[in-house]
Design a protein that fits this description.
By secondary structure, the chain is α+β, with helices and mostly antiparallel strands. 32% of the residues lie in helices and 38% in strands. The strands form 2 sheets. It has a 5-stranded antiparallel sheet, covered by helices on one side. The mean pLDDT is 89.
Length: 172
Amino acid sequence: MKINKNNNKGFTAVEMVIYTAILAMIFVVIVNTILTISKSFNAFSVTNDINNSAVTFLERFVRETRQANSINLSQSILGVNPGKLVLTSVDDFGVSETIEFSVSDGKIVLYKDGVSLGSLITKNASTTSLIFKNITASSSSLIRVEVVFEASRGNVTRSENFYTSSVLRGAY
């Protein structure tokens, strides 16, 4: 008696085509997911850079203007871009000091008595517009600031406007 052994080991051509198609679809889904995650991360990083820059600058601006006695109008550049704001105030020891906000190389820089204290925005963000406006009343002075921050990472670029106002408390 003859036993017929079927020694077909391996895959048929149809099976190989089906397996290859399934693997190709899985690969496309994985690559698409990685690209989507990368783009989302870049968008989040750009938004984070802009928001951190805005919070840092605007909080420092409000703190310094509230403590200031007056605006040095002869050294300030108001109503145009790029603006420059020079405030005069008195420190805790009664010594007069000047505080300056200005733009240098796309960064908002804070100066105290002519010495740079550094940039007030993150390294990945830049300032595309900075405008200060002085609004005076009979007994007080208000400074309004309009600032535009821009950041980019990869192929994601974003720009956002921020506004705030602050009263010079030392002026009244």
